Amino acid sequence: MFTLENFSCGYPSFRLSEISFSVAKGDFIGIIGPNGSGKTTLFRGITGVIPSTGEIELDGSDLRMLSLRQRAQRIAVVPQTVEADSVSVEDFVLMGRLPYLPRFRFFETRNDIEIAEEQMRLCDIFHYKSKLMTELSGGEQQRAAIARALTQQPDLLLLDEATAHLDITHQARLMKLIRRLNETTSLTVLMIIHDLNLAAEYCNRLLLMHNGHLCAQGNPAEVLSEERIERVYQTPVFVHSNPLSGKPVVMLR
Amino acid sequence: MTNRVTMNKKTTYFLAITGLLLLLIAAVLFSLSVGEMHIGLGDALRLLAGGGNSDSLEYMLVTQVRLPRIMLGMAVGGALSLAGAMLQGVYRNPLVEPFTLGISGGASLGVAAVIVLGWQASLGGLLLPLAGFAGALAVLALVWFFGTRKRQVNIQHILLVGVMVSFICSSGMMFLMSIASSESLHGIVFWTMGSLDEPNTALVWITVGATIAVLALSLLFVNPLNALRLGEERALHLGVNTQLAVKLLFVLASVLTGLCVAVAGVIGFVGLIVPHLVRLMFGNDYRILLAGSFLLGASFLLLSDVAARSIIAPNELPIGVITGLVGGVVFIFLMSRKIAR
Lengths: 253, 341
Known about the structure:
The structure holds 2 protein chains of 2 kinds. Chain A is of the alpha/beta class.
């Protein structure tokens, strides 16, 4: 269980108003909202990049009481943009084992390598492992970043627009992968996502943010009402339901 | 089979370090025997081991002239290269070198002030390096003061402040040189060009000790430096205390640089070029970069010093002439070969 209670964080110019929600272990939550609504700020508060107030708990332990290393063993982040350096894909993914490496150990153990290779296979980049990150396309880099995050073996995975650079095949594959991880390993996922239809199709629940507020939460059908989307995004839309899955589909009017 | 890449890496790095160590040993032996007076390698080693006549000229030359000079050369070359690698990692900027932040400027200013005041002989000649070190520390404090806010360092801020302080120091130098007598002017210019000729052996040993200490401490930051390659925020996500790592690396590298400049003057290019040579050879991985830069920098400066004291013997060229020239040419050669591949 991941819980935020009266949680707030931000900058002098922009601050989240107090946010409360809780996520069951193994749940898959989509965070939606217009640009500048505070989604990434919320992530930065959760990961401790910026200071925050209020309660923040993961499986009963107060995250602020954990050291940075302990936190990194439990929460992994896939950032909005991948900082590609001239490093091989394998080394990049292996960096996910850093939170577990003792201070004076510079090389990963066989076990670390096996974990990294498993995640590379899951994310479909194993055949690129000797390539340099700079030689990969944006989507491939994104998948490598996801593999690195999974290599941290976290309890909570935060994805910041991880589908943004992916083609529809890999978008669907990623969403299915995450859902499978939810089911098999009880990984809890919070994902910032702009594609409302992808969110509706795959996420169990959605959180809608607007001007630093959490303005709606619930299952996709509850959150994605025509009236609400029009008000928050200031764009006329038409919502109907996918004839195959029954999930809501949002279209521009 | 599955572990091929990483296992290979471990072996590669081990072999690389061994190779660089052998190169350093070769450089040490070479500089022991080469010079204005040629001493056979066997003789030199025998003299060092305590054999031979301890009143002979050869004995004096090897133990009291060449050996301290070799120790200082290894320490300064290793230290500047190590500091360069550390700072390039902290700033994630390949053009940063130990002197970018005005450390050398501050040291030069301190030394120039002492020379202009005519105090260079006070404290048994120790005032000069002390003033240099004080100047370097003053710059460090200044950059730190203006580069941090609410105890958080902003790396880019520090870089900018450092570059500005560097300019201010050059102006101060110009001012001092313009009011200096021609004798003092010569002293300032000579000091600025750098030299491994340090008569005070205590200073040599202090530099050697400090260099080894910083090298050992820097190894604590191998993993954080690798994580920092992804950016500060991403390193934090991997559990690295980036603020602490950046602060400590910055202070360690700066103090070490200040000490080197105070003892040996401004020996340029080493701290910029050597880490890049290691990168070009073994890749941008701090598991090899720190120790590799240290070893290669030590050999590089020793060999440069041999060249500096042999080319126009019995006179000496400023060592900076050799480091800049050879380092630059080798760098361009390696880079063009890498691009061609």
